[in-house]
């Protein structure tokens, strides 16, 4: 197929696709970061939120009909989508619809699992109309052209295609893992196995599900209705739907690789405090794997209008500077030293501080003479003068959550600052 014909083929497919982003999860492994927000609403990368990555992937892939399924503490997520993603034109058939859990099927049932979240909205999905349904997790960081995966799905005449990546056998124990034949057809699917099946010809690697599914819409509806009638089902794609359809239907794996180099592409699950900290810290490297400066694949978001970052004072003992760091708009670094850190919008670092190896979320104010090392400071925290964080983990653990990797998570509540009120 020529390049122009292939592009035309893909554009027809993307127009006939409805994307559903599952964004209802709590993400409890992120500890207090998700105490007042859903995991997809957690800030990432200096100015974004996690949900911006699957949403931007859809837009950049030519998919402009998107539903976001919400449930757990969705207020900040909903406001972010309304503020940052309201530019699509309904007159052109484009939309980002927020679909909250509404107990549409029974009056006492919230979403039981990933498949149930889609099943409970079948009436809405029928109204939207589409030939293909692209189901996405709302809590991973990656850049992916879904159009290429759609083309592969159609060319193979698949009923279901699963986006997957190569991981070590040890890592595979925490994923849904596929056993495939030489044609990439899935012959086996096991959720979080203790003994994962390896890839053909690669005994130390396994194929793990990324939580990205392309279904033929009619086929998906049939399977969801069948699953809803099945006693004992946990109503989950990985545990129930996928293992059940492998034998009798055409189910294929789509390995996620860089289109030019053919190597494993960047993908991060930032579902734990250590992995969240690491993925953010990778961005301050000289050549990070995730290129946020790529004008061909921009990550869209909502961001308030802020002045440029400002660095003040140049005295010998009071110099404002940042090295090997990313500093967002609205920040003021006043006579302090920032190293290997990522500062989100409107962070104020007052004089005589040292901040290193840390992720500082928006609207944080760090008082004078503080030393902060290998920490995540949550949005809105006020750090009192002379505070030391990250140097004595035993002492830190008395006040804050300290991860297995030694990252200190500081939240307003842990500091006794009630930004949120439960009642």
TrEMBL record:
Biological pathway? Glycan biosynthesis; glycogen biosynthesis
Domain Nucleotidyl transferase residue range list:
19-283
* Coiled-coil region list: none
* Keyword presence, Ribonucleoprotein: no
Q: Which InterPro entries match?
A: ADP-Glc_PPase, ADP_Glu_pyroP_CS, GlgC_bac, GlmU/GlgC-like_hexapep, NTP_transferase_dom, Nucleotide-diphossugar_trans, Trimer_LpxA-like_sf
- Glucose-1-phosphate adenylyltransferase/Bifunctional protein GlmU-like C-terminal hexapeptide domain segment(s): 307-410
| Gene3D superfamilies for the chain | Hexapeptide repeat proteins, Spore Coat Polysaccharide Biosynthesis Protein SpsA, Chain A
Q: Which UniProt keywords apply?
A: ATP-binding, Carbohydrate metabolism, Glycogen biosynthesis, Glycogen metabolism, Nucleotide-binding, Nucleotidyltransferase, Transferase
Show the HAMAP family listed in the entry: GlgC (MF_00624)
Q: Give the protein family.
A: Belongs to the bacterial/plant glucose-1-phosphate adenylyltransferase family.
Q: How does it associate, per the subunit comment?
A: Homotetramer.
Under which name does UniProt file this protein?
Glucose-1-phosphate adenylyltransferase
Lineage of the source organism? Bacteria, Pseudomonadati, Pseudomonadota, Gammaproteobacteria, Methylococcales
């Amino acid at each position: 197929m020529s390049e122009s014909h292939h592009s035309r083929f893909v554009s027809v497919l993307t127009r006939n696709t409805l994307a559903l982003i599952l964004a209802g999860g709590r993400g409890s492994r992120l500890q207090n970061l998700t105490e007042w927000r859903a995991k997809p609403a957690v800030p990432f990368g200096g100015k974004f939120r996690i949900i911006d990555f699957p949403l931007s992937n859809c837009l950049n892939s030519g998919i402009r009909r998107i539903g976001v399924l919400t449930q757990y503490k969705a207020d900040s997520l909903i406001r972010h989508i309304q503020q940052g993603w309201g530019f699509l034109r309904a007159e052109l058939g484009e939309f980002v619809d927020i679909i909250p859990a509404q107990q549409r099927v029974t009056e006492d049932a919230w979403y039981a699992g990933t498949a149930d979240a889609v099943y409970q909205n079948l009436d809405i999905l029928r109204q939207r109309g589409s030939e293909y349904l692209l189901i996405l997790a709302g809590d991973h960081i990656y850049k992916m052209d879904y159009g290429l995966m759609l083309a592969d799905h159609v060319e193979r005449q698949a009923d279901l295609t699963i986006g997957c990546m190569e991981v070590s056998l040890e890592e595979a124990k925490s994923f849904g893992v596929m056993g495939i034949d030489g044609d990439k057809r899935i012959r086996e699917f096991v959720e979080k196995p203790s003994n994962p099946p390896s890839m053909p010809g690669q005994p130390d690697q396994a194929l793990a599900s990324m939580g990205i599914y392309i279904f033929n819409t009619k086929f998906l509806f049939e399977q969801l209705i069948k699953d809803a009638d099945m006693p004992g089902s946990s109503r989950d794609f990985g545990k129930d739907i996928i293992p059940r359809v492998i034998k009798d239907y055409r189910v294929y794996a789509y390995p996620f690789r860089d289109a030019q180099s053919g190597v494993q592409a960047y993908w991060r699950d930032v579902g734990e405090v250590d992995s969240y900290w690491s993925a953010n810290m990778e961005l301050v490297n000289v050549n990070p794997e995730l290129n946020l400066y790529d004008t061909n694949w921009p990550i869209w978001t909502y961001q308030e209008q802020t002045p440029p970052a400002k660095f003040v004072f140049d005295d010998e003992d009071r110099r404002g500077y940042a090295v090997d760091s990313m500093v967002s708009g609205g920040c003021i670094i006043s006579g302090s030293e920032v190293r290997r850190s990522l500062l989100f919008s409107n962070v104020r670092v007052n004089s005589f501080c040292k901040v290193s190896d840390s992720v500082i979320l928006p609207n944080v104010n760090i008082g004078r003479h503080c030393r902060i090392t290998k920490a995540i400071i949550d949005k809105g925290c006020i750090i009192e003068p002379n505070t030391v964080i990250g140097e004595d983990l035993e002492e830190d653990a008395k006040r804050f959550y300290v991860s297995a990797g030694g990252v200190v998570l500081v939240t307003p509540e842990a500091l006794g600052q009630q930004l949120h009120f439960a009642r």
